[in-house]
Give the backbone structure.
Amino acid sequence: MGQRADSGSEMATTRTALLFVAALVTALALALPSGATAGLRSCGGGIRVAIVSCPKAKRIAKEYAKTQAHSLQGYTCSGGGSQGRCVLDRKVVLFPL
């Protein structure tokens, strides 16, 4: 019976250690910027861009807010919740709706 008690406590220790490692990995993953938002710069008014000029991004955001079109100036656009997004190749425009 002594061996069963030892294996049970080892199992609990192993389980606790695995839980700690999983929590640590999750915390680190959440702390790092995602690929979608890394490197975006702010143009003001909640508009953020990657590889797009701010005046162009503001025109796209304004036009999308008016029309809700899926394609604007060659960009593929979508909106969900409180944010709109237009993408063309690696060019990204994010804006509030």
Notes: The chain has a mean pLDDT of 81.
